[in-house]
Write a structure and sequence with these properties.
alpha/beta
Length: 215
């Protein structure tokens, strides 16, 4: 399973990239706005780290606008995937962009039928938002199960990118279901490596080591 950071902070990205566990980055207008810098400047700095997959979102809502922005983003760097919203206009734009060789990440997906359409128009990634479904008293992970099953049934090459991840259990469940990617905030990725028994065990080993005669 590939692990992505959902952030526009180059400090956070660099930290996980240097550890060696990071496979990609997803951004959106909200995350970029938090950085207080120009959109393209942030994107290029992330790409310069060597991250092979960096999703950047269009803000246009019409087909022509999405195409214009998508082509511009694609031209910025080979690592960039263009995020397009799941709307009728987004589907039309994705079909055209994918036909031109642009790798599209179809975002704001909340149903299996939406994911089916995203695959049919050639999206490279489909991003179901499981945390937001949980917020609405739905079971977000049920959607991941349905999408993985449908894609396997028909041999779609679109990868399932689990988004709106809130905690490590989301990552665990997505991995068990066979999702290709999970994108998450920095704090969640940090927790993947943590366990209280590991901390206690290490402290005990170090205490015992102090008792070993030296010299």
């Amino acid at each position: 399973m590939k692990l992505f950071l959902d952030t526009a902070s180059t400090k956070e990205i660099r930290s996980m990239w240097e550890i060696g566990i990071l496979d990609g980055v997803t951004t959106n207008p909200t995350l970029v706005a938090k950085e207080g810098r120009r959109f393209e400047e942030v994107l290029l700095e992330i790409c310069a780290l060597g991250v092979p997959s960096v999703s950047a979102e269009v803000v246009a809502t019409d087909v022509e606008g999405m195409l214009r922005e998508g082509r511009h983003l694609r031209a910025l760097h080979p690592s960039i995937y263009v995020k397009v919203p799941m709307t009728p206009a987004g589907l039309r734009a994705t079909k055209i962009l994918a036909g031109e060789g642009t790798r599209v990440n179809m975002t704001l997906v909340f149903s299996a039928t939406q994911a089916l359409l995203a695959a049919k128009v050639g999206a490279a990634y489909v991003s179901p938002f499981i945390g937001r479904l949980d917020d609405q008293s739905e079971v977000g992970m049920d959607l991941i199960r349905d999408i993985v099953t449908i894609y396997a049934n028909y041999g779609f090459s679109t990868e399932v990118l689990v988004a709106s991840v809130r905690h490590p259990v989301h990552v665990l469940e997505a991995a068990k279901l066979g999702a290709h990617i999970a994108t998450m905030p920095y704090a969640v990725m940090e927790k993947l490596a943590q366990h209280p028994l590991t901390t206690i065990g290490l402290a005990r080993f170090l205490q015992d080591w102090e008792k070993v005669p030296k010299g």
